[in-house]
Amino acid sequence: ETGVTQTPRHLVMGMTNKKSLKCEQHLGHNAMYWYKQSAKKPLELMFVYNFKEQTENNSVPSRFSPECPNSSHLFLHLHTLQPEDSALYLCASSTVYSDVEKLFFGSGTQLSVL
Amino acid sequence: EDQVTQSPEALRLQEGESSSLNCSYTVSGLRGLFWYRQDPGKGPEFLFTLYSAGEEKEKERLKATLTKKESFLHITAPKPEDSATYLCAVQAADSGGYQKVTFGIGTKLQVIP
């Protein structure tokens, strides 16, 4: 399998649930990212990891907890979310951190919080 | 703060009807301007990177151009398969640390057969 793979594709959760989003990249990249895409809004950077180390946390609420066990895998752990957190969550990777030539995106997880 | 404004928000074209999408940007020193294509239910797919005013890049029916204040994505004789949302993004010049990419909201293009 090639590219950036995200699972699940769709997720419906209640406000008290705990769930995790998974991202795996098969491109040999060293940097991985979580983005949030809401309707009528630009892509919003959430977290950046470079060689497994978190380098950016874009003032994201603590109910979102990222984890990067190695350069190929990235998780986003979710707990006690709010309805306004409903959005498309996109994972991306790039060859080099801080010199983003281009980002490779996964297909995203469409999250609905009830 | 870096800003990217795309216009129009939506564009409907007849097949073969050429047009242009606009991306106006404000950034403190441009490192690169990016164009992405996003199909429904999918993540954005990279199209072009432009680095300096006057630069142009082409791919099939698409041509991207860059000035000091804006970029245009020209679509020549579009086909229905060109229907997608086109995203513009900019990255500021490196002043130390990570320079995030700032995205626009996108232009949703629909090409009617």
Task: Characterise this structure.
The complex is a heterodimer of chains A (114) and B (113). With 114 residues, chain A is mainly beta. Chain A is built from no helices and eleven strands. Chain A has strands at residues 4-7, 10-13, 18-25, 31-37, 44-50, 53-57, 64-70, 73-79, 87-94, 104-105, 109-113. In chain A, strands 2, 4, 5, 6, 9, 10 and 11 form a seven-stranded mixed β-sheet that branches. Chain B is mostly beta strands and 113 residues long. In chain B, strands 2, 4, 5, 9, 10 and 11 form a six-stranded mixed β-sheet that branches. Chain B is globular and about 50 Å long. The termini of chain B are far apart. The model of chain B has no long low-confidence stretch (mean pLDDT 93). Chains A and B meet through strand 5 and strand 10 of A and strand 5, strand 9 and strand 10 of B.
